[in-house]
TrEMBL record:
Pfam families: fn3. InterPro entries: FN3_dom, FN3_sf, Ig-like_fold. CDD domains: FN3. Transmembrane segments: none annotated. Residues 48-111 form the Fibronectin type-III domain. It comes from the Eukaryota. This is Fibronectin type-III domain-containing protein.
Length: 111
């Protein structure tokens, strides 16, 4: 059971955690997930971007597009896009900061 104290007493966040397959809160590694449950409950966390897709791909660039979140889109200040090389044993995961405006060009990719 995941509980939080509020002005009105205790709030049970168990169903939110269960939806994320987070039934057993036993490790601090999952604290960000638990925090997201609480922020979502208090309606201060936006929903995910809608219809994310890669629309054009070239040997050294790609264009990504999305639609704004359905909930609280005005609260989003930027996105983080994570990607990695395919077909190699490289564990490198790259992260770029992306504006909230779609589309976005990801360049300097390697073929």
């Amino acid at each position: 059971m995941a509980l939080e104290t509020t002005e009105d007493g205790w709030t049970d966040h168990s169903s939110c955690c269960e939806q994320r397959d987070f039934r057993h809160f036993v490790c601090l590694d999952h604290m960000s997930t638990y925090t997201n449950c609480i922020l979502s409950h208090h309606k201060v966390l936006s929903s995910e971007p809608q219809e994310f897709r890669v629309t054009h791909v070239h040997h050294n660039w790609a264009i990504i597009k999305w639609k704004p979140p359905k909930k609280l889109a005005h609260t989003v200040t930027k996105y983080y896009v994570h990607f990695r090389e395919t077909g190699s044993d490289s564990p490198n995961i790259y992260q770029i900061d992306v504006s909230t405006r779609s589309p976005h060009l990801i360049d300097n990719l390697r073929p």
